[in-house]
Amino acid sequence: MFQLLRPALFALNPETAHHATLDALKAAHCLGTLPLVVKRPQNDPRTVMGLTFPNPVGLAAGLDKNGGYINALAALGFGFIEIGTVTPRPQPGNPKPRMFRLPQAQAIINRMGFNNDGVDALVENVKRANFKGILGINIGKNADTPIEKAADDYLIGLRKVYAHASYVAINISSPNTKNLRQLQGGDELDALLGQLKAEQEKLAQQHGKYVPLAVKIAPDLDSDQIKQIAALLIKHRIDGVIATNTTLSREGVQGLPHGNEAGGLSGAPVREKSTAVIRQLAAELHGALPIIGVGGILKGEHALEKMQAGAALVQMYSGMVYRGWDLIAECASAVKAK
User: Fold this and answer.
1) Which residues, other chains included, contact 21 with Cβ-Cβ below 8 Å and sequence gap of 6+?
2) Rounded to whole angstroms, how far apart are CA atoms 2 and 274?
């Protein structure tokens, strides 16, 4: 079904197609027609971060920034859904155009810049969805918040989403917010994780439940940086790590139309880079916390590759643009019982 629709969607501007697809999914879900075209994965429960996931294949952040399509996306068969990235205050993001397809490389470049309606709007959407599955909420900082005050934004986001999330993802690795990636550095990361962990402990007492924290990191890290990040994740008893975000590299897309656009590159070209980070992280972490693997999954075997490198769960986004919802069941089948 998706392959029949894809030419029409690809004739549209990527951002327009993005919203049109989500609106169509929501309408189909409301009409009850999604089960006619979606093959749901078999149950394959995994316990990760103290949570039981019905299957290990999830949706990465970025597709549903404001949590407006949770029920429809859940009907596609994901084992978990991550919404966001959301910031304390609404912001428009970067100027358009800001998303580009590179079909020859099965890739996307985006420089969205955390465009979202703000954390309060997201929370209201989550309440309306009344979703009972595993829901991750990905939080970030506003573009106009000085990097020295970044922790304040993350703490605001954590407090506001805590009661509504199964886990909270801390996005310090988007390449599209100025200076954000410097939060992955040793002293900055040490300070940020310390404040987040202290706040998590307060919120757990306040709400009577423990909500895990997962940190999302970049693929553009060298071996020493990965080693340092792993040590800090262990030191602060962070519950999980998401590897990886989009890359600034243009390897694999040089010379292609839009290949030199600014922004983060996702899809097939980031696959090996992401898997290499997962592999080293797994070696450095020694099982102290789980890895959620994301980056360039366009086939079931790619999901299996991430798991074999050390991931406990996987996520997808760009692969859905090129393969549609059939990719979910294909990946779930490939990693079943692994």
Assistant:
1) 9
2) 27
DSSP, collapsed to helix, strand or coil, labels residue 171 as: strand
Catalytic residue, from 174, 266, 274, 318: name it: 174
Residue 338 has pLDDT above 80, yes or no: no
Q: Is 174 one of the catalytic residues?
A: yes
Peptide bond into 85 cis (omega under 30): yes
Residue at 269: amino acid letter: P
Please tell me which residue, 36 or 16, carries the higher pLDDT value: 16
The mean pLDDT of 126-155, rounded to a whole number, is: 97
**Which pLDDT does position 247 carry in this prediction?**
98
Contacts of residue 128, defined as CB under 8 A and 6 or more positions apart, other chains included, come to: none
Tokens of 157: 């986001």
Q: Across-strand partners of 315? A: 58, 294
Residue 108, SS3? strand
**What are the structural domain ranges in the chain?**
2-335
Express each pLDDT in 281-309 by its tens digit: 999 999 999 999 999 999 999 999 999 99
Which fold, 2-335?
TIM Barrel (3.20.20)
Given a contact cutoff of 8 angstroms between Cβ atoms, the answer to whether 151 and 97 are in contact is no
Residue in 322, 314, 318, 317 with CA at minimum distance from that of residue 41: 314
Tens-place pLDDT, residues 146-178? 999 999 999 999 999 999 999 999 999 999 999
Please tell me the distance from the alpha carbon of residue 272 to that of residue 287, in angstroms, as a whole number.
22
